[in-house]
Amino acid sequence: MRGRAQALTTPRGLFLVTALLLCALPVTKDIRDPDFWWHLRTGQLIVDRRGLLGTDPFTYTASTHHWTMHEWLTEVLFAGLYHAGGLALIVVVLSVVTWLALVCIFRAAQLRRPHHLALGLGLVLATISGSPVWGPRAQMITFAFTCLVLYIVERHLRQGGRLIWALVPLFLVWSNLHSGFIIGAGFIVLILGAEYAGSRLGLPGTAPPDRVRTLLIALVACGAVVALNPNGLEIYLYPFQTQGSTAQQSLIQEWQSPDFHDASVWAFEFMMLSLAIMLVVNRRVAPRDLVLALTTVALSLQSERHIALFVAASTPLWIEQANLCGQRLLTRRRHVGTAPTARPPRPPRFAWMLSVTVIGGLGLFVLTWLANAASTREDSLTYARDYPVCAARWLAASPSGLHIFDQYGEGGYLASRLSAHGDKVFIFGDAALMGDDLLNQYGAVEGVSPRWDRILRDNGTDLVLFDTGTSFSNMISQSQRWTEVYRDPRSVAFVPATDAGRALAARLAPVPRYVAGSTDTCAQLQSGGLST
After folding, report:
1. Which of 228, 350, 424, 459 has the most Cβ atoms closer than 10 angstroms to its Cβ?
2. Alpha carbon separation from 129 to 24, 133, 528 (Å, rounded)
3. What DSSP line would sit under 327-385, residue for residue?
4. Is 245 in a helix, a strand, or coil?
5. Contacts of 481 (CB under 8 A, 6+ apart)
6. Measured between alpha carbons, how far is 6 from 233 in angstroms, rounded to an integer?
7. Rounded distance, CA 476 to CA 461, Å?
8. What is the pLDDT of residue 240?
9. HSE (side-chain half, CA atoms, 13 Å) at 260
10. Residue 56 — φ and ψ, nearest 5°?
């Protein structure tokens, strides 16, 4: 312990601790994932009913579909954390979980013994590369487990030992938290295949055969314990249903390819291209590293949400390659006669004072950043700009039992706020539960196809609630078959221009009016619009 504390006074130790603390900033955010809200409400219902839900209670379109609840334990966890400390505790816990996943990447990279500059800079670059997907969300649990599994596997292949058997309880828990366990299993399969091919071809960088055999046995044991799940064998199939859905790939933004015109993915683009260049320059890579890098690059180019997998699997390789490039440059520099200059040793007291000041100051800044993200209230203007907070408040004051056509990304929020009121939505974020047919119907309405009105009426829609300024809301506002009944800067609502629709409009709550200078969230939204 004293030796580790002493290491913090060295330039290497201080640099690495600083890099780790800086990595906590990009992963610490308030809740921006629209699926979070229905996960939270689902967890509360599971706790209340003391069992899984066979069908969803949120929709009037998919309520008969069988629900494979692959995230049930995560949802229960959300409900428990919310009960104990509200959104603030959820933000804190998931931010820490994501940061610990980065620590696992750090430890996996340390196994390659890189220079501290390559290690710290590579970790910071990887964290910035994952910016499009960071935030408090269920997927961060899978990211953390993926990083932990890859660290355990790499450590086993390099050093051996009994830690590899920790994979078995990890997969047991993981398979109940999120169906992303299939990613960890798939990565292990790729590693085993690369090790087998590498040993047959005599390639450098392969692990001893006995360690590879032990990893194979551990994988079989992991596959067996996954079945200890309330969903039974269905849990094996669920991930492939999601990955194989063409409707999800085309309609859901985060399942689409990254937009390289978007500045948020430029760091990922740089990391990917620089890794390719360094591999060509160094011409030295272990087969398992190459297979994981190629796989995660392909997945990331297919879907933006998979950038997290690239960060998990390819960051240690990037750090290793950067270290090799640094060694080549250093060797060339020494070859031309430039010797490194020795620095005078720093006084021990000065080193301790510097370390305490830097680490303490940066740690305090990280805690302040985390506290700020955790302090965002559910009824705050921040959330009112991103979700139909004010429209949901208006609907909660209106008659119950409405069938509401909603925007896909907002169905989860409306379900969390209105399901107890008795209202049901057209669609929400569990795309596999919704099914491709319903997703395509939604896409036809959102895309203003000629059959949009018939789809709404055939499904028994009472009210349409959609974002203002969209093509669909602009079009329906010009239709004589629908009547506008509510509008705020975020949302607009319509009912059918029929006798039943007019009767409903008469029973809806009046549109709120606010006095000038009111501090109410919806009053601020009205006065300031969606500006930040």
Report:
1. 424
2. 13, 9, 33
3. HHHHHHHHHTT-PPPPPPPPPHHHHHHHHHHHHHHHHHHHHHHHHHHHT--TTSHHHHH
4. coil
5. 453, 496, 497
6. 51
7. 14
8. 74
9. 9
10. -85, 145
pLDDT in tens, 292-347: 999 999 999 988 989 999 999 999 999 999 999 998 887 776 655 555 555 555 55
Q: How many CB atoms lie within 10 A of CB 497?
A: 13
Task: Provide the whole-model pTM.
Answer: 0.90
Planar angle of CA 95, 100, 106, nearest 5 degrees: 135
Distance from C-alpha of 22 to C-alpha of 28, rounded to nearest angstrom: 11
Structure tokens belonging to residue 316: 């240690």
b/e burial code for range 367-387 (CB count within 10 A of at least 16 → b): eeebeebbebebeebbbbbbb
Place of tokens 């809806």: 508
Mean pLDDT, residues 365-372: 88
Strand locations in 374-524 (E): 403-405, 424-425, 463-467, 482-487, 491-496
Backbone angles phi, psi at 487, to 5 degrees: -155, 135
Strands of the 424-425 sheet, one edge to the other: 424-425, 403-405, 463-467, 491-496, 482-487
Give residue 92's region: left, alpha or beta (phi > 0; psi -120 to 50). alpha
Which residue type sits at 505?
A
Q: Which structure tokens are listed for 2?
A: 């004293």
End-to-end CA distance of the chain: 47
Q: What is the largest CA-CA distance in the chain?
A: 91
466 φ, ψ to 5°? -145, 165
Query: Which value, to the nearest 10 degrees, does the dihedral of the CA atoms of residues 94, 112, 325, 196 take?
Result: -100
> Which amino acid is located at 285 in the chain?
V
pLDDT of residue 348: 63
- pLDDT band (50, 70, 90) for residue 168: very high
Q: Name the H helices within 130-208.
A: 139-159, 167-177, 181-201
Cβ neighbours for 316, distance < 8 A, ≥ 6 positions apart: 105, 108, 109, 111, 112, 154, 289
Secondary structure, 3-state, 198-225 = HHHHCCCCCCCHHHHHHHHHHHHHHHHH
Tokens representing 324 are: 């090799």
